[in-house]
Design goal:
Number of strands: 18
Bound molecules: NADP nicotinamide-adenine-dinucleotide phosphate
Strand content: 15-25%
Oligomer: single chain
Helix content: 25-40%
Structural class: alpha/beta
Largest sheet: 11 strands, mixed
Shape: elongated
Radius of gyration: 24 Å
Distance between the termini: 40 Å
Length: about 425
């Protein structure tokens, strides 16, 4: 194993506690031979022979005694070089590295296919939730039309607490960091990048295509305010950071952004660090997976599942015959990812304007000029010539038209602050 951090520690615990069960399931003992770390001197509370810890990760991927390499160090390099080296040495690989697979998955999948080894990456998408297995085998006989869900526990924890406590984003983020729910650098989680990594991996797997990560639309939760959350509540909606991969005419949608969804939707009741994913198939209809999407134990469980699966194939024959991406590489092409500007949503818009006569008419006029019709309008507070919040919801509108209208408003003296725009998905 390369890495002995949060996930690696969970794997060590699991292998220490499950030795007998793993032996029974595989029919052979599966031994954690060596672990590579950055700093050998670091104190670790898990029980593991210190003499089997090394700072030379390449000594693991080239060790002829090792059959399976578990990569849980994270990042792009040297993780990529280590994985490719392991594959070139005929070793099977299990990884939790969503960043690497989203950015450079095609290189890994191609090496795995030509090297005739197995690749397990269940832990790379939503921790313990068996979404990779669901797509790769459970629904392999069906056609998946959409995968949508909450796939970042940190973001969901922050939004859930903002919703229940009415406190601002920064206050909850600080608290989440002190409680260990958010990392000291939370950018990937709160800016939607981590969710986008998972969307790219799921879309590539489910739709048999390669996905250019740069074309995944990404918007995080940093600009959501308690006001937006309480307005959503008044409309019978709740704000969630949704990750969506969907088939559409001429390509696919791959996007991550906050969305207002009906309070009655099951995703609206998924709170805290939990993740939930719905899979909509042609025949199997809507199926839902819910569980802890990260953390030491849940992620270790997903890794151990992959290791046992591969070990069973080694023990019984047949290891190295599973295409990592459901269909072989030569049949997979890059599919066009639809631009968000070409999509249509209903919108929640919060304007900060000066409270003077005629402002509402000007807002409505600017939107109307682009063919955007208003569904409802609420003004909060009344203090002449002071900034006030005006909230509008729109009927369905093309995102490009709305952006043009908002761009034009930016150049006027009507808006005193950037407009908050949140997509409404009533049929989420
Ligand atoms: N944490 C989660 O809940 C979670 C969930 C799903 C997926 N993942 C993914 O799992 C992977 C690991 O995450 P983590 O949270 O366990 O990270 P982490 O706590 O930061 O641990 C990283 C480990 O890698 C080791 N390492 C770093 N650079 C190394 C190098 N050059 N050579 C050898 N070892 C090196 C570190 O060694 P030292 O201990 O000596 O510093 C540490 O043990 C990432 O890809 C992450 O995205 C994490």
């Amino acid at each position: 194993m390369i890495g002995f951090g949060a996930v690696g520690s969970g794997v060590v615990n699991l292998f220490n506690n499950m030795t007998r069960e793993i032996f029974e399931r595989v029919g052979l003992s599966v031994e954690l031979v060596k672990i590579a770390v950055r700093n050998k001197g670091k104190k670790r509370s898990q029980i593991f022979d210190k003499n089997k810890i090394t700072e030379d990760a390449f000594s693991i991927v080239t060790d002829p005694e090792i059959d399976i390499v578990v990569e849980v160090m994270g990042g792009e390099e040297p993780a990529m070089a280590l994985i490719l080296k392991a594959i070139s040495q005929g070793k099977h690989v299990v990884t939790a590295n969503k960043h690497l697979l989203a950015m450079r998955g095609e290189e890994v999948y191609s090496a795995v296919e030509s090297g005739e080894v197995e690749l397990g990456f269940e832990a790379a998408v939503a921790g313990a939730i068996p979404i990779v297995r669901a797509i790769r085998s459970a629904f392999a006989g069906d056609r998946i039309d959409m995968i949508q869900g909450i796939v970042n526990g940190t973001g969901n924890y922050i939004l859930s607490r903002m919703t229940s406590e009415g406190k601002p984003f920064n206050e909850i983020l600080k608290d989440a960091q002190s409680l260990g729910y958010a990392e000291s650098d939370p950018a990937f989680d709160i800016e939607g990048i981590d969710s986008a990594h998972k969307v790219a991996i799921m879309a590539a797997l489910a739709f048999g295509t390669s996905v250019n990560f740069g074309s995944v639309f990404i918007e995080g939760i940093t600009s959501i305010t308690p006001d937006d959350i309480s307005m959503a509540r008044e409309f019978g909606l709740k704000i969630k950071l949704l990750a969506t991969a969907k088939r559409c005419e001429g390509g696919i949608e791959a996007r991550v952004h906050p969305a207002m969804i009906p309070q009655s939707h099951f995703l609206a009741s998924v709170n805290g660090a939990y993740n939930a994913i719905e899979i909509i198939c042609d025949n199997a209809a809507k199926n839902v997976l819910i569980g802890p999407g990260a953390g030491s134990g849940p992620t270790a469980s997903a890794i151990a599942g992959d290791v046992i699966d591969i070990a069973c194939k080694i023990a019984r024959g047949g290891a190295g015959k599973t295409p990592p991406m459901l269909i072989p590489l030569e049949l997979r092409n890059e599919t066009k990812v639809k631009a968000i500007s070409d999509m249509v949503f209903e919108y929640y818009l919060r304007f900060t304007v000066s409270d003077r006569p005629g402002i509402l008419a000007k807002l409505a006029g600017a939107l109307g000029e682009k063919g955007i019709s208003i569904a409802s309008m609420i003004q909060r507070g009344r203090q002449e010539n002071e900034p006030v919040s005006v909230v509008l919801t729109t009927h369905s509108a093309a995102e490009a038209d709305l952006d043009m209208a908002l761009e034009q408003l930016k150049d006027t003296d009507i808006c005193l602050a950037p407009v908050t725009k949140i997509r409404i998905q009533k049929d989420a």
